[in-house]
Design a protein that fits this description.
heterodimer, A: 161 residues, mainly alpha, Arc Repressor Mutant, subunit A, 9 helices, B: 96 residues
Chain lengths: 161, 96
């Protein structure tokens, strides 16, 4: 833009003075910086179905689900090695709080494996431990309880297999 | 040049680990999320394969090109090593 003004000055330098040039340059700059560009209205949802890229689900987030939580839960379950067992643990704890040993018995897995999974779930604020030193029970956190439908959705997808 | 190639191969190895995990999960949970993870990791892997193929072609075709490739190889090394660090973190998170 500046170059254009300079070019026009160089072309017409015989007809305008330096002062006139700087006045015109200032006016030009003012017009550039105050011009509002009206871009045409564009939305991706008009081209692609909203559900394809959204974590809100088919109801558009009306059910009160937190889309960020949904994404985190999906990452922990679908993006990690022990994710499948982790979602099964969450599904068990949904109805009754259990300690690691009981979870291991119900799921027919090693105690150490369950202990590791529960530690990861606890670190990600999905389960909490009761304040007991021995045989502490784990239960779902408030945010996990509020978003149980995500868990059900994932469990359904596992169930189909 | 050698370090850039090593890091590209390292990236492919790390991506293989990630893809295997994602595919294992996808076989149990069939959803657009799991499919998307596999797709993204596969495309990253393709990128690294293309880098190796492209640079090996440059390196072997002509001596002049080989010198040019050597001159700019440190840029490629920086790009690859940053990706390697990122993938190490991803593998660590995924395999926990």
């Amino acid at each position: 833009m500046f170059c254009l003004v300079v070019q026009s000055y160089l072309l017409n330098n015989t007809t305008i003075s330096k002062k006139e040039f700087f006045i015109s340059l200032t006016r030009y700059e003012q017009s550039v910086f105050t011009t509002t560009i009206n871009l045409p209205a564009f939305s991706f949802s008009g081209i692609f179905p909203r559900q394809l890229f959204s974590f809100l689900g088919t109801d558009g987030g009306q059910s009160g689900l937190d889309p960020r939580f949904k994404m985190i839960l999906w990452s922990i379950i679908a993006g990690t090695r022990g994710g499948i067992n982790r979602v099964k643990i969450l599904n068990l704890l949904k109805t009754t709080p259990m300690n690691a040993n009981k979870i291991a018995t119900v799921m027919n897995l090693d105690y150490k494996t369950i202990s590791h999974h529960v530690k990861i779930l606890s670190k990600n604020n999905l389960v909490v431990k009761t304040e007991k030193d021995y045989g502490a029970e784990y239960y779902l956190t408030q945010i996990m309880k509020e978003n149980q439908s995500v868990l059900e959705e994932i469990m359904q997808k596992i169930g189909t297999k | 040049m050698l370090s850039a190639v090593i890091s590209a191969f390292l990236n492919i190895g790390l991506l293989l680990v990630v893809i295997v995990t994602y595919v294992q999960n996808m076989r149990v949970i069939r959803s657009y999320y799991t499919s998307g993870l596999v797709l993204v990791a596969s495309l990253l892997m393709l990128q690294n394969i293309v880098i190796i193929l492209f640079w090996s072609t440059l390196y072997m075709d002509d001596k002049a090109l080989m010198m040019s490739a050597d001159m700019v190889s440190h840029y490629l090394f920086v790009i690859n090593i940053i990706q390697t660090i990122g993938l190490f973190v991803l593998v660590w998170i995924t395999r926990r």
